[in-house]
Amino acid sequence: MQLNLLKAKIHRATVTHAELHYEGSCAIDGRLLDISGIREYEMVHIYNINSGHRFSTYAIRGEEGSGVISVNGAAAHKAQPGDLVIICAYGICEEAEAAKYKPTLVYVDRHNQLTHTNHSMPAQAA
């Protein structure tokens, strides 16, 4: 059986731009792409913490170290500058591989600068 698992996420990034008339995509600081392992043109799912909107688009490379998170095209209706978002990419693996698999979790500050990374999330308390 094949499983669709979280490959990588950038947690609580701040949207810096929402460009309605730019060709659709999400520009992400190139350093964050490299650290997370999200590839340019890879499908990403974006979860807007402020509004609850959930949508998918593809990643494009933003300037390294710029902190840019620009939601573009039609997706710009789903986010605005200042919104906090979680950007996720998923991958498919075999069930045997899934037992050992760990995603790359990237955490940023309010300026979208790396604070730390992890490969697991703490268990949620009851």
UniProtKB/TrEMBL annotation:
Its EC number is 4.1.1.11. One of its GO terms (molecular function) is aspartate 1-decarboxylase activity. Binds 1 pyruvoyl group covalently per subunit. Its cofactor is pyruvate. SUPFAM superfamilies: ADC-like. It holds the Pfam family Asp_decarbox. The active site is at S25 (schiff-base intermediate with substrate), Y58 (proton donor). It catalyses: L-aspartate + H(+) = beta-alanine + CO2. Heterooctamer of four alpha and four beta subunits. NCBIfam families: panD. Catalyzes the pyruvoyl-dependent decarboxylation of aspartate to produce beta-alanine. This is Aspartate 1-decarboxylase. It comes from Lysobacter gummosus.
